[in-house]
Amino acid sequence: MKELNLHLYEGNGIPIKKRNMELPGYQPIEDFDHPRYYIADKGLRNAVNVALALGQPLLVTGEPGTGKTQLADSIAWELGLPKLEFHTKTTSTAVDLFYQYDALRRFQDAHLSEKKRLNIDDYITFQALGNAILLTMPPEEANEYLPEALKGIGPTRSVVLIDEIDKAPRDLPNDVLDEIEKMRFTVKETGKTFKTIKRLRPILVLSSNSEKNLPDAFLRRCVFYHIPFPAPQQLKEIVQKRFAGQPDFTPAFIDAAVNSFFEIRSLALKKKPATAEFLGWLQVLRSMELDPKDIDLKTGKAEALVISFNILAKSDEDFSAMRKKVGAEMKE
Asked: What is the rounded average pLDDT of the residues 307-317?
């Protein structure tokens, strides 16, 4: 085993140049997050196909890190469609899903401009659902409203991710029901109405961390699926796909890491580490050149494993629980 490259930082006030060393460049694994690595279980595949058949939004829940957000990337990649996304905030409104109007900038320009009238369209920025509807229209009608990256690629369907919709004010889901069902919206500042061609209806994927309940009326309009945390065998398959071509990630190494990871998740933790943390943990373990037997929580090298727990623990209490699991003494 070797220590992490963190030894480049010694915390002793001596610059790296003074130590006659060079900081190595960051070397990420190429295309690590590519949609082709996404693995959907049978239940999720069925839910996606039901949503496609009915033209209804797909609402997915699950622990953070179970692939809710990446699902939209996978659907868009497999179907060859553009993907648009909207990241919900606690201040988001139904209108924000379609467009935003910069009233402040228009007010400022009105005072500075010599023109008597300003074009309101110049202060409208279309958002994910608005752009998705515009993409179903002929380019000659939609291009003047679309951002440069989307001009000329329609008419086409698209995949729209509305991420963490449970963060929104409770009224938002109900307020947007009619527009989502009819895929039509009106820019109230200009009075212009935009609507989709039915056969090119956008595919909506809504993610929720279940931080609060969504309205029943909204839930009735959605296809629902809860993404469970991957079982050990599925997690091994995910690793094998993500790290294919990496000779250090042997079956024995992966098996040992998966087994120990599930032991860690079985602890009474405030926040259990998810798939994303596990994949990061694997890279840390590999950089330390640990043998599979060293990863075993019962017989592994406690000091080495404790170093790696920084990627898994998200609180001091959880970090302490992991240290105790490997029998590491708490040291200042």
From this structure: 93
Q: What is the pLDDT of residues 243-260, one digit of tens each?
A: 888 888 899 999 999 999
Q: DSSP per residue over 85-107, as a string? A: EEE--TT--TGGGTEEE-HHHHH
| Alpha carbon distance 84, 81 (integer Å) | 10
Give the strand order in the sheet containing 58-62.
83-87, 159-163, 203-208, 58-62, 223-227
Instruction: Say how many residues make up the chain.
Output: 332
Query: How far apart are alpha carbons 77 and 274 in whole angstroms?
Result: 24
248, 211: one domain: no
Sign of the C-alpha dihedral, residues 219, 220, 225, 226?
Answer: positive
Q: 205 and 56 in contact (C-beta within 8 Å)?
A: no
Amino acid at 9: Y
The tally of domains found in the chain comes to 2
Q: Output the CA angle 111-115-118, nearest 5 degrees.
A: 80
pLDDT, greater one: 134 or 182: 134
Mean pLDDT, to the nearest integer, of 67-78? Answer: 94
What is the distance between the terminal CA atoms of the chain, rounded to a whole angstrom?
24
Phi, psi for residue 254 in degrees, rounded to 5: -65, -45
Structural domain span for residue 137: 42-227
